[in-house]
Amino acid sequence: MNLHVLGCSGAIAAGCKTTAFLLDDDVLIDAGTGVGDLALEALARVDHILISHSHLDHVLSIGLLADSVMRLRKAQNRPAIQVRALPQTLAALREHIFNGVIWPDFTRLPSAENPVLELLPIAIGDVLDLAGKRIEVLSAQHTVPAVGFAVDGGSAGWWVYTGDTGPNPALWRRLKDMQVAHLVIETAFSDEERQLARISRHLCPTALGNELAQLSGSVDVHITHIKPGEMEAVMAEIGKLGTPHRMQALVAGQVMNL
Ligand SMILES: [Zn+2]
Ligand SMILES: [Zn+2]
Hints:
globular
C-alpha cells in the first residue's frame, strides 16, 4: 500500500493545503483542500472517503470532488462514492453542506436512485475492510465528535492518524496493543498559543510531549496540522521535547510505503 500526503497544513496559503491522505488510489482519508491537486481521472478513482470530523478544513473537498467526478463516474458505471464518518458528522454534512444552500445534495444527484455520494455511519472500534485495506476507527478528543484512523500495514506495522485531537488517553491505551510504524499526530499550535490549543482541543508541543510519553518504543512520528507560518517555531519547540521517538514534520507530496 501507498499513502500519499495530499495536504497536511492547519490552514491554507500558497503551498499549504489542508488535511487529505490518499491510500493507494481509491481510499481518501479526510477531504481537505489537498484533494484539489489530483487530476480528474485520479479523483474519479476514489471509491471511499473516510472523514475524521465535520470541520471545514477536513470536509470541504467532498462536495467539490462529487461535482468534479459525477459525469465521469456515471459514464464509467461506477457505484456511489462511500463516505464514512460518525453519525453526528454525517448529520452535520447533511444539514450544513448538502442542504441545497451551501451546496447541492449530492446524495441525490445525478439521480436519487444512482447518486454520486452515499453516506455511511461508522463507530469507534470498527474495523473496516475497504477494497482489501483494513482500517480501524480510533477515538479522538475534539470540540465536535471526532475520530482518528489506523491502517493495517500487516508485517510493516500500522499507519496511525490521530485526527484533530487534544489529550486522548484512550488512544494510547489502544495503541499499546498495536505495532505502530508511523504516527501522524497533530500539533496545531505553538506553546505560545497553548490556551487556544486547550480550548479548541488541539495539541501544542508541550501537550504533544505529554501524549508521546504514553507511546512506548521508538516510532516514526510525523507532525501534521501546523498553521502556515508557524512551522519553524512549532518544530523548534518539538525538537526540545527530548522524546525517544523520531520526530519530523509531515510534508505534502510525501509518499509512505505501508
Ligand atoms: Zn477540527
Ligand atoms: Zn483541522
